Every structure is written in C-alpha cells, then in structure tokens.
C-alpha cells in the first residue's frame, strides 16, 4: 500500500474509492468542484502506475478520455494533464501541444481586447 491509500481521512478514502472505479464518477454534479478534479487525478495517477509505458500515447489517451467525459471536462483535463505531464516528462508529451508551448510568445500582459 502507499501513503495515499493509508490516509485516515474518511472523506479522502471515499474519493480514492471513487477514483478506482472504471468510470469517472458523477462529474456532472457541482461542476468545477475540486473534488471531481482530484478524483480524476487520482484515477489517472493510479493508471500511470500500471501503464506499460508512460509516453505521449498514454498522455493523449488519458486526456481524450477525460475530455470525452461529462461535467467540467476542460478543468479536469487541465489539472490532471499538468500532473500527468509532470510524470511522463515534457519530451514525452505529444509533439503538437509541445511545439505550441515552445512557440508561445509573451505579449507583455496586453491580453485580448474584447467588445463591451
């Protein structure tokens, strides 16, 4: 067992149980709630421990599954994606998003002008 699995916090244990299901749980309720993003992260961190390879294929498949889910999928993918990206490593991320990150140009905080 891991320290995570040995947590004495009952609420966290419920989250952990939900993350071990084959589905992403009820992500439609209370969208944007940290609990759902955390459960999503736990699920994919657990899947990462059993994956044969941690590469762009694993990362991309995980992101697609999250984004095809229900609820606040972009938030869940953003949070889980950051953690999974740290695990697989920058150079193992899919090529296109990696190139976009490297090509991003900071524009001095000018932002985007929007019509009022």
Automatic annotation (TrEMBL):
Q: Which domain of life is it from?
A: Eukaryota
Q: Which InterPro entries match?
A: Ribosyl_crysJ1, Ribosyl_crysJ1_sf
Is Metal-binding included in the keywords of this UniProt record?
A: yes
- Identify the SUPFAM superfamilies for this entry: ADP-ribosylglycohydrolase (SSF101478)
Cofactors required: Mg(2+)
Which note does the record give on the cofactor?
Binds 2 magnesium ions per subunit.
What Gene Ontology molecular function terms does this protein carry?
metal ion binding
Binding of Mg(2+): at which residues?
Answer: 72, 74-75
Q: What Pfam families has UniProt attached to this entry? A: ADP_ribosyl_GH
Name the UniProt key words of this record, in alphabetical order. Magnesium, Metal-binding
User: Per its record, how is this protein called by name?
Assistant: ADP-ribosylglycohydrolase family protein
